Amino acid sequence: EDSEIRIAAYLAIMKCPSDDLIKDVRTILEAEEANQVSSFIWSHLTNLMETSSPHKQSIRDIVQDQRLKKSFDLERIKYSRNYEGSFMLESLNTGAVAESNVI
After folding, report:
1. pLDDT single digits (tens) 24-76
2. Which part of the chain is the Vitellogenin domain (predicted)?
């Protein structure tokens, strides 16, 4: 199938991920052969690892898998990517998130 469709499906299911879904994503990512898809998913997960958004921090464990980390040192310009910037001001209990996808 088209990489664009697969990436869109991934983003749709990751809006409300469960622990089981995170485990499934890890398993699928280990076997993924399409660089466009794997690069996008890895960049998305990496951004989730670094996010300040409290709603997205539950996904951090998947990125800490060193086996996966070594497999996805992909060129930033060549493949699809996810970009995310966020900040949280605990003292004011407020923050902001900006996200973009290049497919």
Report:
1. 888 888 888 878 888 888 888 888 777 777 667 667 666 666 566 656 655 66
2. 1-45
| Best CA proximity match to 84, nearest among 37, 58, 55, 45 | 45
The predicted structure's pLDDT at residue 83: 81
Distances (CA, A) of 75 to 41, 43, 65, 79, 91: 14, 11, 20, 7, 38
Domain coordinates in residue numbering, the chain = 3-102
The whole-angstrom distance between residue 45's C-alpha and the CA centroid of its chain comes to 3
Residue 68 CA to residue 73 CA, distance in Å, equals 9
Residue 3 near residue 36, CB atoms below 8 Å: yes
